[in-house]
Amino acid sequence: MAYLPSELLSHQQKVCRLYKRAARCIEDWIHKTPDRRYEAALLRERFDKNKDIKDFKYAKYLLEEGEKELFSKIHYQPISFPDSPTGVAYDRKSYVPDYVLDYWHPLEKAMYPKYFARREQMKDEYMKWYFETYPEEKKKIDDH
Question: Which superkingdom is the protein from (predicted)?
Answer without folding.
Answer: Eukaryota
